[in-house]
Write a structure and sequence with these properties.
Order of helices and strands of chain A: EHEHEHEHEH
Strand order of the largest sheet of chain B: 4-2-5-1-6-7-8
Number of strands of chain A: 5
Largest sheet of chain A: 4 strands, parallel
Helix content of chain A: 40-55%
Oligomer: heterodimer
CATH superfamily of chain A: Cobalamin-binding domain
CATH class of the largest domain in chain B: Alpha Beta
Strand content of chain B: 5-15%
CATH architecture of the largest domain in chain B: 3-Layer(aba) Sandwich
Number of helices of chain A: 5
Order of helices and strands of chain B: HHHEHEEEHEHEHEHHEHHHH
Structural class of chain A: alpha/beta
Radius of gyration of chain A: 13 Å
Strand content of chain A: 15-25%
Number of strands of chain B: 8
């Protein structure tokens, strides 16, 4: 699932990622803009996804990303892998990874590398 | 009763979500579960919403959910989007229009991709309807892109099928062509603020009026409604027509349960049998390599496709040569 958490109206990146996953043969649920972590987790559970990719360009990733992981744990769905991407300062990456975000993709990452990472690290159940 | 069945009936979201995925993945173990769930089905009212891409189906469904929730009815939605024939991937974007309902515990929304070429969509969507029905949803709404035979089949497994069109799509010749327009119980012209609405209305009316003799025998005459789903115009009227159609079904032979209607059962069972044969026989041929071998021998000019087909099928099924 590709999701846009928070008050961030820029989803071109998210849509390009969704398209790249589609072309790699994945089924991608796109949530649309302005989702709360609660809404994202609820949707992910209803859709029974293997992975959530969060896109944030507005600077609130330090709250939104870990909160999503936390809620998944609360719902007993910690098996869903969470990744993030967007405008994320390098300094924040270790902190996000510590909070349970499996990987962060920053601008300039090749689409093929992102797809490859998912193929290698996300095992369908 | 096993625990999965119990949890589905209890409305456990994770169990339902996983079961639908297993159905979609064609896992053989779901069959036992569907058998156990079957006695708990038949209570939900199933509505099919279909129409070309971009006519506003998801927006319409979003508004329908709101109105049904106001009446304290619970709603399950199955939103079907096409699978890419090239990569096998899909973008399932119908949730985007329904996001305001995602925290509502009375609403369960699930996206499905059309996937393979073996009529799988029809079968797994039907089973998914059963699951949402068994979990206790009052209404199940199935949204499909109405472009192929499979999609027409899906809407046939519903109580009421709503066909959504927009002004200016095709002329009066399109309206008399066979196919999707024939399966509609209700027609909605969405985006009715646009030019050409009245023309579309009269084209549809002409098509429907051609079956006048049927209506005189007491058959259902499909109403045509104008709507602007984004502004919630015409949605209440559409739900009223759906209710009327439901009453009509109650009065006409068979009553409301879909599995009491012979033609629906015949269609569904035929589909299931075909699917099992494909699973049992075709997938076996793929596994043994016989199929690929036959492909090679046709390509190399050693045989023709008709002979190859005979030699694959006849021994496996124990058929006699024609």
């Amino acid at each position: 699932m590709v999701a846009k958490p928070g008050l961030d109206g820029h989803d071109r990146g998210a849509r390009i990622i969704a398209r790249a996953y589609r072309d790699a043969g994945f089924e991608v649920v796109y949530t649309g803009l302005h989702q709360t972590p609660e809404e994202i987790v609820e949707a992910a559970i209803q859709e029974d996804v293997d992975m959530i990719g969060l896109s944030s360009l507005a600077g609130a990733h330090r709250y939104l990303f870990p909160r999503t992981v936390e809620l998944l744990k609360e719902r007993g769905a910690e098996d869903i892998v969470v990744c993030g991407g967007g405008i994320i300062p390098d300094d924040d990456i270790p902190r996000l990874k510590k909070a349970g975000i499996a990987e962060i993709f920053t601008p300039g990452t090749a689409l093929d590398d992102i797809v490859k990472w998912v193929e290698e690290n996300v095992k369908p159940r | 009763m096993d625990s999965v069945t119990e949890k589905v009936i209890g409305g456990d979201i994770r169990t339902v979500a996983r079961l639908i995925r297993d159905i979609d993945d064609g896992m053989p173990e779901v069959r036992e579960c569907l058998k156990a769930l079957y006695p708990h089905t038949g209570k939900a009212y199933v509505i099919g919403i279909t129409g070309a891409p971009g006519v506003g189906k998801s927006t319409l469904v979003d508004q329908m959910i709101s109105h049904l929730r106001k009446k304290e009815k619970t709603v399950g939605v199955l939103a079907v989007d096409p699978t890419s024939p090239f990569s096998g991937g899909a973008i399932l974007g119908d949730r985007v229009r329904m996001q305001r309902h995602s925290m509502d515990q009375g609403v369960f929304i699930r996206s499905l991709a059309t996937r393979g070429h073996f009529g799988g969509l029809t079968l797994s969507t039907r089973s998914a309807i059963d699951v949402l029905d068994a979990m206790g949803k009052d209404y199940v709404i199935v949204e499909t892109v109405g472009v192929g035979q499979d999609e027409v089949d899906v809407v046939r497994s519903t109580h009421t099928t709503v066909i959504v069109v927009i002004p200016g799509m095709g002329d009066d010749i399109q309206a008399i062509k066979a196919g999707i327009l024939e399966v509609g119980d209700i027609f909605v012209i969405n985006k009715a603020d646009r030019e050409g609405t009245d023309k579309t209305l009269s084209d549809l009316r002409l098509m429907i009026d051609m079956d006048q003799r049927k209506y005189e025998e007491g058959r259902w005459k499909p109403p045509i409604l104008k709507a602007e789903a984004v502004f919630d115009k015409g949605v209440v009227e559409m739900l009223e027509e759906i209710e009327k159609h439901g009453k009509y079904l109650m009065q006409s032979g068979g009553g409301l349960p879909l599995r009491r209607r012979k033609e629906k059962v015949r269609e569904e069972l035929a589909e299931m049998v075909k699917n099992r044969i494909i699973q049992g026989v075709f997938e076996e041929l793929l596994k043994t390599g016989d199929f690929e071998e036959a492909v090679d021998s046709i390509v190399d000019g050693r045989t023709d496709p008709y002979t190859a087909c005979d030699s694959l099928v006849i021994p496996t099924l124990g058929l006699s040569k024609p």
